[in-house]
Amino acid sequence: MRIKRTLLFVILLLLVLPAVQKRFHPVSSRPLNGVFANAAKPVFSCSAWMTGQFQDACTRYLEDHTGFRPDLVRLYNQVDFSFFSLPHAERVVIGKNHELFASGYIRGYLGQDFPGNRYIDEKVKMLRYLQEYLWKEKHIFVVVVIPPDKGSFYPECIPGRFLKVKRHQAARDYFLQKAGKAGINILDFNSWFLAMKDTSPYRLIPTTGVHWSEYGAWLSADSATRYLERMTGCTMPRMVLDSVVTSTHPRHKDDDINKTMNLVWNAPHARLAYPAFHFVSGKTMSKPSALFVADSFFWGWWDQPIIQNLFRNPEIWYYDQEIYPESFTRTKHTWEAGLRETVERQDIIVLLQVGAGGGNPGSGIIDRLFAEFDTSAGNPIRKIERTMLSDTAWLAAEKRKSAERNLPLPVMMRSDAISLFNDDLKRK
Description:
By secondary structure, this protein is an alpha/beta fold. The protein has helices at residues 2-24, 46-51, 53-64, 69-84, 103-110, 117-138, 150-153, 171-182, 189-196, 214-232, 256-260, 299-302, 307-310, 339-344, 356-359, 365-373, 380-390, 392-404, 409-427, and strands spanning 92-94, 100-102, 141-146, 186-188, 238-247, 272-280, 289-294, 312-318, 322-324, 348-352. The protein folds into three domains: 2-97, no CATH class; 115-374, no CATH class; 377-428, no CATH class. Helix 6 packs across helix 8 (171-182) and helix 17 crosses helix 19 (409-427). The radius of gyration is 26 Å and the shape is globular.
């Protein structure tokens, strides 16, 4: 009888505690990582009641506002992860040896995102023109930086279910082949990291992360600095390594995938290295100005901080969408900045994107730069814009779109012209 009463008391307590937590918050509950939109409290109406929409909305609201919800979610996620290797995070794949992947890197390794030969051929041709024009006319050095991607770095850890399909040529590999023949300036850290995979004393890509480790980011930045000095003739500040500290606790973004899974305990991970270093500057050294059109790998250089100590007033166009450091305080979009003016005040343009951006590094900046600086009559993007201007109905539609999206008409027209141009390339 005592056992029954005890069990009844425990069950009642479990039922009451979430309500108490929701109302009075006696226990501090750590919020979940990520962006979540909790359901709003529904407003009753007879029509919503009759269709069942009100009941569904109430269910979502109560689920999202249950006491201890973050803790219960973590417990649920932990059980699925530990016993069934199921991640409750968008586009996360649990590989062999507990290696965590983003599904996009597996698709890239298998060549499932290949946009077509002609598409990449055209980007290489545009990039070749820009590289030559900006260096000869403006003395601006353009370089493509390709970080390591986890899919090609740890293919042996990709789950077998993904490898049942035939592997095709990766967009990065075809881009490297064509860009190499065209003489494009490239820093291929993917190949370099692969060559060091079995000899590096420290992990270059974390088990629970998708980017280069802090040690890998420092190593690549040191190499990139020496490369830029050799190619541009400038003498930049020198990074001097003081020590390397190892830790079993991932720091900063070294466990970025692990954080998205919202577990009770961290996923298994290997020991990681963290370099301590300082910068040496001299009278003969200078900080070049640079524009980085980059993806999230860039933050491995920014957070240490490396970029701020090597470059003068660095500008970051994140996926060619948002401008940093301004967007740290207020979002500023790249269309708000003058493209030509921004480029012409730089010494170096860096297009940094994993997988060479699927053959289009810089998230579309190549198209925009080519349309801006190639003023010849044969420019295909400008041709489409001229057709827009001469077609009354088309121009009216572009004006409506620019008003709806609160974009200047020239920005709207160029964006649509580039989209049409690329769609045609992919179809062909």
